[in-house]
Amino acid sequence: MKLYACPGTCSLAPHIALHELEVEHELELVNLMKGDGQKPEFRELNPLGQVPLLVGEHGEVLTEVPAILIYLFQQYGQMDVPLYQSVRHLSFISSELHKNFYPQFFGKQILGEDDPSVPKLAQHFKERLEKRWEYVDYLLPAFDDLDGASMGTADPYLYTVCRWWIKLGHNFDGYESIPGFLKNM
Questions:
Q1: Can you give the CATH number for the domain in which 94 is found?
Q2: Residues 55 and 72 in one domain
C-alpha cells in the first residue's frame, strides 16, 4: 500500500489513520508547491494532480479523504458508527470546513499580494469557519466517532482541519468540546 501525501495538506488525515490502524504502507511525498502533482507519472494516477492518493494492496487507486478513510476503516479497522453517519461527518468536514480554508491559504495567490479585497475575503471566511466550529463543538459530545478518544473514521480529518485553524493563528478558546477532542487525538 502506498500513500502519496504532501506535508501540511489534508493527506495528513489518511496518514494518521494508516498509523493508528497499524497498516503497513509506503509514504511517497509529493511537493505540490514545486509542481510534483503535475508530473505525468503522478497525473496518470490522479489526473487532478492532488493529494491524498492511496494505492491499495490490490492496485486500487483512491482519491479524496472521505473515500480513503472509509476504505481504510472498512478494510483494516472497524466502522465505529453506521456508514451513513461516517459519510455525514466526513462530508461536513470536506465541504463546510476544508473548502472554507482555501481562500485563507491561497487568497493572496489568487487575487494578488496587493489586492485590497484579500483582508475582507480572509475575514469573511474566518467568520464562516467560526460558525462551523460552533456546530462542531455542539456535535462532538453526541458522536463517539468524533471524540478523538478511540480513533473514529472522521477523527483524523477533523484533527487535520483543526490544525489548519491553529496554523492560521486562531485558537479554540471558548469552545467546550474541541479542546478535549484535540487533547484526545
A1: 1.20.1050.10
A2: yes
Does 175 lie in the same domain as 90?
yes
66 and 24 together in one domain: yes
Q: Does residue 79 contact residue 153 with C-beta atoms inside 8 Å?
A: yes
Can you spell out the DSSP letters for 110-158?
Answer: HH-TT-TTHHHHHHHHHHHHHHHHHHHHHHGGG-GGGSSSS--TTHHHH
Q: How does pLDDT run along the chain (185 residues), one tens digit per residue?
A: 999 999 999 999 999 999 999 999 999 999 999 999 999 999 999 999 999 999 999 999 999 999 999 999 999 987 778 899 999 999 999 999 999 999 889 888 889 889 999 899 989 999 999 999 999 999 988 776 565 567 889 999 999 999 999 999 999 999 999 999 999 88
DSSP class per residue in 15-66: HHHHHHTT---EEEE--GGGTGGGSHHHHHH-TT--S-EEE-TTS-EEESHH
- Domain carrying residue 36: 2-76
Tally the domains of the chain.
2
